[in-house]
Design goal:
CATH architecture: 3-Layer(aba) Sandwich
Helix content: 40-55%
Order of helices and strands: EHEHHEHEHHEHEEHEEEHHEEHEHHH
Strand content: 5-15%
Distance between the termini: 9 Å
Number of domains: 1
Number of helices: 14
Radius of gyration: 19 Å
CATH superfamily: NAD(P)-binding Rossmann-like Domain
CATH topology: Rossmann fold
Strand order of the largest sheet: 3-2-1-4-5-6-11
CATH class: Alpha Beta
Largest sheet: 7 strands, parallel
Length: 347
């Protein structure tokens, strides 16, 4: 790994720590010897990776509404060295069904955190996680770069673009003295073991296999920049550990090599080789506001930090499929989870 900073014994506050990506981040940092703290509104799924990994007893978690919580008191209590802000309403369709909640969580929740950072006297380095959907999507064939226009046709995408603009304004207006170092990261479409979220492709595929029901695929040829969840997790830590370079910057975290432009049907077919009995059918497409084509360029993070994604398509799918298979078979998932992290770090 290229991490310039030793996270052992450092205090890291993770917002959204009970979610899928937050649980992976927590486990990685605990393996590094960090002191991990969390903030979340709830445990979002049943089962949940947070509980499966016993993170409820390993991480001191504050629960509350991120848009209403007094963050300066939490920051002053914990005195974190680092904050990773991942708390969000993460689903496009949910943002359409309940736009007010989407904006309250994504925009005003982040604003509340930024206000806490502005008011505290505690020095801290912060990473704000947004999304690959923060760009104005014009269905271009090449990857979006950090200098491309921000936008969003749905409330989720628009809220993530707004967060990027807001963070930049706080950096330039309030954080120029170096007390608060801050950067943003844009990634999306992660897969990996332990995601049980509603309205996401990989959990839907697993549930179909687990129950023996037929999976209905409505957009088989839509492509996404699939990547294993450990890619952005370690990308985020790379940004945090190099704040002398990354302060005030935004970075895409994108898959490399043969993971670009993978259609939905190809991912389903590949998983079926690990999960015998998985059955699916192609249904009539339903109206969707999401674009069929989306990919990012990660040239900036490579040139700034010499960071790039490690895993190819077969590694990404096999790690994901084997995790779920072990869970379904009742195996000790903590060991496999930690072994996958160790294996990734040794690549």
């Amino acid at each position: 790994m290229n991490l310039m900073f030793d996270f052992a014994d450092k205090k890291i506050l993770i917002t959204g720590n009970t979610g899928f990506k937050g649980s992976w981040m927590s486990t990685v940092l605990l393996q590094m010897g960090a002191k991990v703290f969390g903030f979340s509104d709830c445990i979002p799924t049943k089962p949940s990776l947070f509980e499966v990994l016993n993170l409820d007893v390993k991480v001191q978690t504050h629960f509350g509404d991120i848009a209403m919580t007094n963050f300066i008191s939490i920051i002053d209590e914990i005195k974190p060295d680092f904050i990773v802000h991942m708390a969000a309403q993460p689903i496009v369709i949910n943002s359409i069904e309940n736009p007010r909640k989407n904006w309250n969580t994504n925009l005003f929740g982040t604003l509340n955190l930024l206000e806490g950072l502005r008011e505290t006297e505690h020095p801290v380095s912060v990473l704000i996680v947004t999304s690959d959907k923060c760009y104005e999507n014009v269905s271009q064939l090449w990857g979006y770069r950090e200098c491309d226009r921000l936008g969003g046709e749905d409330p989720y995408s628009a809220s993530k673009a707004a967060v990027e603009i807001m963070v930049n304004s706080y950096f330039k207006t309030f954080f120029g003295d170096g007390r608060v170092n801050i950067a943003t990261a844009r990634a999306g479409n992660v897969i990996g073991g332990g995601d049980w979220s509603d309205k996401r492709l990989l959990p839907d595929i697993f549930r179909a296999w687990d129950t023996g029901e037929e999976l209905l695929i409505r957009h088989p040829h839509s492509t996404r920049p699939w990547q294993h969840v450990l890619e952005p997790v370690f990308g985020y830590l790379e940004i945090l550990s190099n704040m002398d370079i990354t302060n005030g910057e935004s970075y895409n975290i994108a898959p490399g090599g043969n993971l670009r432009n993978i259609p939905v049907i190809d991912l389903v077919t590949e998983l079926s080789s690990y999960w015998p009995g998985l059955a699916w059918n192609i249904g009539l497409p339903k109206e969707s506001i999401e674009h069929n084509l989306l990919q990012l360029s990660s040239e900036k993070i490579f040139h700034h930090l010499n960071w790039s994604a490690k895993l190819d398509y077969s590694q990404t799918v096999s790690m994901t499929a084997n995790w779920y298979k072990a869970f379904r078979n009742g195996e000790k998932i903590d060991d496999l989870h930690c072994k996958q992290i160790d294996a990734y770090m040794s690549v």
